Amino acid sequence: MDNIGFSYSYKFQMWTLPVIAYWMLIIGTQNGHSWKNSFPTNPEVNMNLSQMMSYRGYPNEYYDIVTEDGYFLKLLRIPKGKENLGTVPHRPVVYLQHGFAASAFNWVANLPSNSLAYLLADAGCDVWLGNSRGNTWSRRHMALSPDSEEFWAFSFDEMAKYDLPATLNFILKKTKQKELYYLGHSQGTTIAFISFSTNPKLAQKIKMFFGLAPVVSVKHIKDPPKELLPLLKSLLKTRLDVYISNFSGVSVQNAIHWIQLISSEQFHAYDWEDPALNMLHYHQATPPLYNVTLMTVPTMLWSGGEDALADPIDVDSLLPNISNLISHKRIPEYNHLDFYLGMDIAQQVYYEVIKVIKKNMQT
Questions:
Q1: pLDDT (tens digit, 9 = 90+) per residue, 242-271?
Q2: Catalytic residue among 98, 185, 257, 336
Q3: pTM score, whole prediction
Q4: Of these residues, 186, 197, 217, 303, which one is catalytic?
């Protein structure tokens, strides 16, 4: 890489275009055009996540947990379904982890018949929804202000090292269970691959890992302009205002980390771009590589044939490295966001997840 500055600028544009397109409403409003005038207003627009769940008739709880390095994370729970008022002695625990620039909102974004959190709760599961550090619902620290650069000095490394263990251990302690199901989308799979391959003690507590649009290698990430039109069309639904009102930000360091992976074509920890700083953080001059083959958690994956971010070639290169891969299903017409916004996502993925969990409940 001859020109780091040029490469970063170009790659950053490649990576962020889908996100920018997804949130065009924000840009339009800043330029004096309010898209909200073009769409019917949903009552959920001004609700927080707990209020949205209550509005749909689902019991819910929320907790503030603290990571080892001092970040407060907002954790939500749907302990049972809307119609299921009884108690189940061994209700399976399912944890849902969002991806890049997102939040727990992903899993309640649509109507109950098409939102994974609601479907799982109605199927008899104890459902937990996580929020990574820095997003809309997890923007507090014991000592640092979100207005400071120090607060944002993290990437998905810290999410895997601190956020996930704190969250999953809290859930297991609260539910008095020994294991739980983990489901992640996009970066939610990335931090799982890191955490479960570097933290064997935590990995032993995962009954099964469901990965949607898995991302490890980004060697073949595409420049996505041709993807934008169908993506935007897929968003023009009556619930666009709800999607936009739940936009979550990300740290620059996290975005740079992804750019580094694109440039290096390797799966490694954040590169501080200074041998001395890398030595300080990792006791070596270069960032350590992550070894997915060390993860032994039973894994089921779903990927999209039209995914510009979790490119099919990159997903195919990942598959042989998963030592306990139960299954992989590719949905030819799916893009990256279809895994929680797709109109037929329940039929394509969610019902299969529920079927696997129910089968394990009977054994």
A1: 544 444 567 888 888 998 998 899 999 999
A2: 336
A3: 0.85
A4: 186
